[in-house]
UniProtKB/TrEMBL annotation:
Protein name per Swiss-Prot or TrEMBL: Group II intron reverse transcriptase/maturase
GO molecular function: RNA-directed DNA polymerase activity
Upper taxonomic lineage: Bacteria, Bacillati, Actinomycetota, Actinomycetes, Kitasatosporales
Pfam assignment, any one: GIIM
Species, as recorded: Streptomyces xinghaiensis
SUPFAM superfamilies: DNA/RNA polymerases
Keyword set, alphabetical order: Nucleotidyltransferase, RNA-directed DNA polymerase, Transferase
Coiled-coil parts of chain: none
Keyword Nucleotidyltransferase: yes
Encoding gene (name): ltrA
PANTHER family in the cross-refs: NUCLEAR INTRON MATURASE 1, MITOCHONDRIAL-RELATED, PROTEIN YKFC
Enzyme class, broadest EC rank: transferase
Domain of life: Bacteria
Amino acid sequence: MQAKLHRWAVADPGRRFDDLFNFVHDPATLIVAFDRVAGNRGANTPGVDGLTVAWVEERVGVPGFLEDLRTALKAGTFRPLPVRERAIPKPGGSGKVRKLGIPTIADRVVQAALKLVLEPIFEADFLPVSYGFRPGRRAHDAIAEIHMFGSRGYQWVLDADIEACFDRIDHTALMGRVRLRVKDKRVLALVKAFLKAGVLTEHAGLKESDTGTPQGGILSPLLANIALTVLDEYVMAPWRPDGTMGTTYRRHARRKKGLPTWRIVRYADDFVVLVHGQKSDAESLREDIAGVLAPLGLRLSPAKTRVVHMGEGFDFLGFHIQWRRKRGTNQWYVYTFIADRPLKAVKGKIRAMTHRVSQADPRTILTRINQILRGWTSYFRYAVCKHTLSNLRHFVQWRVFRWLRKLHRLRWKQLRRLFVTPSGRWRPVAMGGIELFDPSSVTVTRYRYRGTIPAPWASANHA
């Protein structure tokens, strides 16, 4: 079903799809939707009704739950409940919080079903310059594209951030973009119902949602990408086959005349515009982009939006990207390092778990530290970070040593007897059969630019 919808959308860019609602409440769609909800990390986090996936599976049964949900959808009696709002601190120790919306299990399943139907259609319209929350794409692809164009003369960067994007998207503008592809009024009404469901805040009670798509909802990233496609299309309009930057020859011709070329790389609401030209060209684009975002109810964050040269460097998706001279040569390249904020964040987590007064089980603590370090190093191993990982190993090891010494009331002499080999080298920390993970053992490699990334439904297997 998804492959056919995607193929039809690609074949006819102006097609508006009708009779999609039958796909939404199809039993097969709801089964796949429930499996995806149950497999998410927040499956056992309840919404305003207090129900979890485990409770549904044990008390109601999945077949009966999905049949009742399908009946309500077909009869038109299904109504989304308000999302439960929860504030979590933003990474980096800034003190700011991010507001997440936690829908009920039934709402999550319907949102997942909607996404299964709508995503293949809108993926046909999304441009290859956006990478956030899209199938088959990841943050490293965005970094690789910046690396590739930065190495080809795109030295000025508009490092931008949309202020409270998920909270401020205008519903009218968003629904207008959805209607360009969807004609089925029942599907449109269902999408709008989720947008208007309201938020149950932690302190102020029920609050109407006049704008935005609450972060945490399964459908929210797709809707945000649909809205922000306006930005991609505006910036990349000259890159169309008939545009002034549509071919390599035309881009070279523009540069010979002293005219700039540019390209956007976007990951959800974070994006950069790479400019082959002057600083004034990037600043001019900043004003144009602000005008494009205004009808969506969005604006650029004054604190986080700036124009920088690649030689100065900038942070994007946890990485620090900078144009530097290769040591020992006169050649300059674009390098990717680990930014300061994620390094401080992971160290903060380790400090919190190895606090000197903590009486937690060492085996449990080592297991949790290993999980954090493996996930963190897996993400950042594509940066120039061998020295950073070695320092991180040293930091973690000695945090654990000091915590164990305090926990077991050991003297340094006793600690050395436990963890130093006869040759004088420190043994890896191990407690209860769990050995502390060594971040410096991770293989550091470069993530290669993949160029055009096809949608998963475009493969020959779906023909």
